[in-house]
Write a structure and sequence with these properties.
It is a single chain. By secondary structure, the protein is mainly alpha-helical. It has six helices and two strands; from the N terminus they run αββααααα. Strand 1 and strand 2 form a beta hairpin. About 5% of the residues have low confidence.
């Protein structure tokens, strides 16, 4: 029974590692990093939102400092996760995979994910502390609008899968 569970875990892990990146649409060029102008465009959007919700210069400084810290921590966690994914991928492709090592990698990846989630929660709470209730409400509204616009632009996963399948048909 344990062996069967391990086989299922390995199948799910391999499928996740192989399929998920195929559907990802990162804002990166293959070798050059972020697309030209991406960071500037993102900063301009954030500045516009900050102005629209009426931040004071002190609040802007606090949020910008916090975002820099968040980006650094996120980059560190992303690197750790990539290293663990690669190690898991290598271990799963071996003919004699070490199940103890696979379990340890899974545990490590779960811990990194939990750390990322905690950082996100801490970030929301930090923003809440910095903003007034009215500003926070305006920010939430702006973010909802931005998300809806993004969904309209990108479409849903179901639509993307249907389009992909149509392109694959001979």
């Amino acid at each position: 029974m344990k062996r069967l569970n391990l086989v299922y875990i390995m199948i799910v892990a391999v499928m996740t590692l192989v399929i998920a990146p195929a559907y990802a649409e990162p804002q990166l060029d293959e070798k050059e990093g972020p697309k030209p102008g991406f960071r500037e465009e993102r900063k301009a959007e954030m500045d516009k939102i900050m102005d629209e919700i009426g931040l004071t210069p002190e609040q802007k400084t606090q949020i910008e400092t916090f975002h820099k810290e968040q980006r650094a921590k996120d980059a560190e966690l992303r690197t750790k996760m990539q290293e663990k994914r690669e190690a898991l991928r290598e271990e799963l492709t071996k003919t004699d995979s070490d199940t103890v090592k696979i379990e340890q990698l899974k545990t490590d990846m779960t811990a990194i994910y939990e750390e990322k989630m905690q950082a996100r929660i801490d970030g929301v709470l930090k923003i809440k502390e910095t903003l007034t209730p009215e500003q926070y409400e305006k920010l939430n509204q702006k973010m909802k609008e931005k998300h809806e616009a993004w969904k309209e632009k990108k479409g849903t996963w179901g639509e993307k899968i249907k389009e992909h399948r149509k392109m694959r048909k001979p």
